[in-house]
Amino acid sequence: MASAGIGTPLHVSGELFKMMTGIDLVHVPYKGAAPAHTDLLGGQVQVMFSDMSSIQLIRAGKLRALAVTTSTRAEALPDIPTVGEFVPGYEASVWQGMGAPRNTPAEIVDKLNREIDAGLADPNMKARLADLAFAVFASSPAEFGKFIAAETEKWGKVIRTTNIKPE
Length: 167
Prior knowledge:
Blueprint: E1 2-3, H1 9-21, E2 28-29, H2 33-42, H3 55-59, H4 106-121, H5 123-131, H6 141-162
Parallel strand pairs: 1-2
């Protein structure tokens, strides 16, 4: 099982899969996704948990997507099932968000949230993000805080259970 490196989201996604299925995959860490993809394409490794950066390789027919790790099928790959369709409860997403210092006044946080949500709702922005295979999940600052706490707990458990250590 190739990954972009020890402790990367792609590595821990594979470790979660191993935990939930009992399948024994040997982790082969690389120094980034590009060399991992190279060895996957060359047959030196058999599987890789990748992010959507591999979509061009999938669209070109160079890689075969087995499943997406998100909770719902990806708009960019609608015919590809989710891992959760055959491993109930599995979900692994690479996400990005915006933050501000803890003491930022609430009215500024609310204004930033409204403006960011408006930008994400813009049809041109939505189309560009969809072309890059990104899914947009706008939320309130409070919802985002709860999401971060849940993700921290989830991935912390995977890291502790599998004893992942930085090099």
